[in-house]
Specification:
The protein contains 12 helices and 9 strands. β3 and β4 form a beta hairpin. α5 packs antiparallel against α12. The radius of gyration is 21 Å and the shape is elongated.
Length: 272
């Protein structure tokens, strides 16, 4: 389990990866290995109407109270239950563990991804940049005419921690793209893919096509937004053209990082 967790929690060298690497770490109650706190699942003790304390997943990390952290792996949760680590963490021998705790955790992680996708999409004028006139003006503004301007543009690009746009490219579609297109989105089969897609933004590739479409079926998502994204994903699956990938416009740094983290946790938990 320790070796498996070490492999699963490898962090790439992207801007997001650097921020995650600097986060405080916590010991997993299931496998006794330290991981970045924000990449773990937090559990709290919640009291029901009858005064009984229950172990409750806190996927968003916002519930009040003492927290116990477990790596995003169902087997780690089962180990924590088996070793009675929740009772130890909450210092309460009477705290009860729901039989469906693993499934409750999975549902909570999915809800968190849906909420963050919705928050990211709320800042988008559309699911993808379809306003051709604005796109043309943006291209004109970025047109380089001299070496000095090109150097200045590169310097500005290096200073940007997070791109303005997120590109939704499911992980299974990345594998289907040819080498020329892979080069354009900085994905190389020989190494771990970067978050950054030069000139486009950040890839939202933690989930597969089916998993992402399933997330977009969530009841809380704006229907027009979700329909547009699904339509773009279908076009992208057929065409393999990067221009057909959905784009979330104006996603700020904190939201993009939280969305990245939420997807990583969900992916690890569902595929663990």
């Amino acid at each position: 389990m320790e070796r498996l967790c070490d492999e699963r929690w490898a962090v790439d060298g992207s801007a997001h990866g650097v921020r995650v690497a600097l986060m405080p770490r916590r010991r997993c109650a299931g496998v006794d290995v330290h991981f970045p706190r924000e990449l773990m699942v937090r559990y709290v003790s919640a009291v029901d109407d009858e005064g009984v304390a229950w172990v409750t997943p806190d996927a968003g990390g916002r519930l009040r109270g003492r927290g116990t952290y477990v790596s995003a792996n169902p087997r780690a949760v089962e180990e924590a239950i088996k070793r009675k680590r929740f009772e130890l963490g909450f210092k309460n021998r009477d705290v009860r563990v729901p039989k469906t705790l693993v499934e409750m955790t999975r549902r909570g992680l999915r809800r968190e991804v849906v909420a963050l996708v919705e928050r990211a999409g709320a800042s988008a004028s559309e699911a993808r940049a379809s306003d051709s006139s604005e796109t043309t003006r943006a291209v004109e503004r970025e047109t380089v005419t001299t070496v000095e301007e090109e150097i200045e543009q590169l310097l500005r690009a290096q200073k940007r921690i997070v791109a303005d746009d997120w590109v939704l490219i499911p992980s299974d579609l990345v594998d289907e793209m040819d080498d020329e297109r892979l080069e354009k989105v900085s994905v190389h089969r020989e190494r771990a893919p970067s978050d950054v897609s030069p000139g486009v933004g950040y890839r939202l590739d933690a989930l597969s096509m089916d998993e992402l479409v399933s997330i977009l079926d969530g009841d809380s998502l704006d229907k027009t937004f979700a329909t547009n994204v699904r339509a773009c994903l279908e076009r992208f699956r057929l065409s393999k053209k990067l221009s057909d990938a959905p784009v979330l416009v104006g996603v700020d740094e904190d939201v993009s990082l939280r969305l990245r983290i939420a997807q990583i946790k969900l992916k690890l938990f569902e595929r663990g």
